[in-house]
Write a structure and sequence with these properties.
Layout lengths: L1 H9 L17 H4 L13 E5 L3 H11 L5 E5 L2 H10 L4 E4 L8 H11 L5 E5 L4 H9 L4 E4 L4 H12 L1
Helix pairs in contact: 4-5
């Protein structure tokens, strides 16, 4: 299953980085503990543009308890199409996206809907990426791995 997912993700590109697979067991006492509602975003809609399943599921888990409605775009062009057709309150955009990368998609989305907040979320951390994100119109930038408190604080600026 892992080999299949990696080959699917890689496509016809050569492997550029090492790959690390980790597993861990969550103790039963932590599984039973439900987090308190952090925010009430019941009537808010977020589009998460993320092609990697685990990253998407982690973002959804981080939003659990907020009541926010989440939709997903698995490539940059689909994110543009969804943003054009649907009124979202916020867009979380990964930079490394198939079909149309996050920079191109964000630029096009901001030209269509300048008031739609776009937050870049990426593992490609650096001042260069943050600066480039701002230049194309992104409203904010957060690097992976995402710190939950920072993540909620950034979203609060646009959803509260």
């Amino acid at each position: 299953l892992l080999d299949s997912k990696i080959e699917q993700w890689k496509g016809d590109r050569e492997q550029l980085d090492d790959i690390l697979v980790m597993g861990f067991k969550v103790p039963d006492k932590l599984k039973k503990r439900q987090p308190a509602t952090i925010k009430d975003w019941t009537n808010k809609n977020i589009l998460i543009a993320e092609d990697t399943d685990i990253n998407y599921f982690l973002l959804v888990e981080a939003l659990r308890g907020t009541g926010v409605n989440v939709e997903r775009a698995v490539d940059g062009q689909y994110a543009v199409d969804q943003a054009r057709e649907t009124d979202f309150d916020l867009l979380l955009m990964d930079l490394n996206m198939p079909v149309k990368d996050g920079y191109e998609a964000t630029k096009e989305i901001k030209s269509l809907k300048p008031s739609l907040p776009v937050i870049i979320q990426t593992a490609m951390y650096g001042e260069e990426e943050a600066d480039k994100s701002k230049k194309i119109g992104a409203d904010d930038y957060i690097s992976k791995p995402i710190d939950l408190k920072e993540f909620i604080n950034i979203l609060s600026k646009y959803l509260d």
